Structures are given as C-alpha cells and as structure tokens.
User: Fold this.
Amino acid sequence: MKIIYDVIKKPLFTEKGMDLKERENKILIEVNRDANKIEIKKAVEEIFKVKVEKVATINKKGKIKRYGKYIGKRPDKKKAVITLKQGEKLDFIEGGV
Assistant:
C-alpha cells in the first residue's frame, strides 16, 4: 500500500465494538483486504495521532445469496481490532444524542 488513506475504509460501530472500546481500549475498523498489520498500524497512528500497541485482523468471507433465480455473492471483508496503548483515547463520535 502506498497511500495510508487507502488502508482504512471505515470505523465499525457495533455493540461488541463499543463494549471492547469501553472495557479494553480497543477499536474496530474495516480495512482494505490487501493491507497487512504493519500498514494498518502505521495508517492508524498517522491519521488519528494515537499510539497503537497491537493489531489483530479478521478475514470474513462474503455469503452466497439467492436473488430469485440468480445466485450472487456478497463481497469479502477484512476487519482490524486495534489495541491502543495505555492512556491513549480515540473517539470517532463525540457528543451524540
């Protein structure tokens, strides 16, 4: 990966992700399928200005679905669980309802 903004696609806001964030200081991000852990770590540190302790990745295969008589496949995805160093904090949404 040449450009760090191609590595990170979007943050994932799920109940499990919010629980990880509150309890263990971890964040969930959807990343490019070709990105490795080193590229993900550098991109997060440079974009969000935080220190990353550890990166774990999860590859998720897309499901095969039927649409009437046609068979299709949802795209494959890759997620990263990023552990921030002690004392670091990252809030994608501050305030809220």
Q: What stands out?
A: Strands lie at 8-11, 26-31, 52-60, 64-67, 70-73, 77-84. The domain at 4-84 is CATH 3.30.70.330 (Alpha-Beta Plaits). The chain has one domain: 4-84. The chain has a mean pLDDT of 90.
